[in-house]
């Protein structure tokens, strides 16, 4: 569903004045200006005004705004659930009852000028196939356009997105390449990670060298694109699963950065058997041991789990104690033992909140083997 001329519906709270448009100047008051009551396209206040207008309208019609995601609106009636997700002027919605869907369409069409596009099949570059036993999401069209954009459609495909032996560094003595080209490749690949967790780590690593890219960095990025060229149809399958338990996995690449020896945190999170979230993020501090790097990564995983737990409450799924899997027993023991230790006394206090959530039994850390 799309709202036509959405920004023109918002009322302004601030005082905004505009000059009289050419051809419509009042001959008696040529120096006067107009004060706007409603938003216009181009105003920085327009998106906020539209959001407040739509929010107030939906709340007045008994739709509840999400407690975590403020662009989520929900309506519950016994066992029936209706959800609507707002993205500027596009609205994605669905329900367990088709009557609720039609009611929403009628309510919105009565207040705003709408255009309906039917069942969701394409949204912001995501291709969505809805089948009886699940949903498949990928970005095949976008991936092919990306490969063609950078002229690598005829290049040899790669089986993996990165080499397991070569390491990236600043390469101060290397030959510089065009920044615009390199940054364009990185930006395009970052958008592709919305449905491709398999390239998330290496794209994030390559993105660190956008300030002064070298030929060695460009060759890594081209390898990723060649891998994408051979796997453009890859995506994520969400099966029809009644299991709604939320679990997470965390890991760390200890001292993986050759320049500053900082580690990278990684994590993935499953709702039942379905992958719903993932991240790869460079840590802010240098870890002195594998246990410390894994401990910080587990803390990052805990924050994501707790955020997702609260979001699921809006959807009607209440989670008990969550499980986070980690492959380092030392990190697990540190999280369970509140005693100050020489190995952990220098760790920033913000990472130690994991001890509190473990003590309160919000999250339990379990060991999982690296090779499992």
From TrEMBL:
InterPro entries the record matches: DNA/RNA_pol_sf, RVT_2
Q: Which residues form the Reverse transcriptase Ty1/copia-type domain?
A: 1-163
Q: PANTHER family annotated for this entry?
A: GAG-POL-RELATED RETROTRANSPOSON, RLK (RECEPTOR-LIKE KINASE) PROTEIN, PUTATIVE-RELATED
* Full protein name: Reverse transcriptase Ty1/copia-type domain-containing protein
Provenance organism:
Acer saccharum
